[in-house]
Amino acid sequence: MRYAVTHPGHFAVMFRPDLVDPADPQLVRASTASATMLYGPVGSVADVGGDEDARQVAGTAAWALVHGIATLWLQGSLRGGPIDDPEALTRAAARYLFEPPPGSGSTS
Questions:
Q1: CB 70 within 8 A of CB 86
Q2: Which of 26, 27, 52, 59 shows the greatest Cβ crowding within 10 Å of its Cβ?
Q3: For 15-60, what is each residue's pLDDT tens digit?
Q4: Which domain does 70 fall in, by range?
């Protein structure tokens, strides 16, 4: 989120497949490092156990959440809402995905 807000031009083109060579060694290394950062720790906040498919889905949900909020924030669509800080908004929204609702009795 911080990168998207502080480097909006870079963020805008990062996911444009028509602008990159998917075989570029630097891109492959950066993509691998990013995937490790995203999918590696997701098990600490989502109940995925050892299920790699569940880890992938949870990581994708987290990525989509952050990317979507960043895009909406940069477009001005989320300004003036109840949380006027994109990082705080992202953390609050993530709690809806990765924490059980209060009073649910769930501990996972």
A1: yes
A2: 59
A3: 888 988 889 999 899 989 988 888 877 777 677 777 888 888 888 8
A4: 2-98
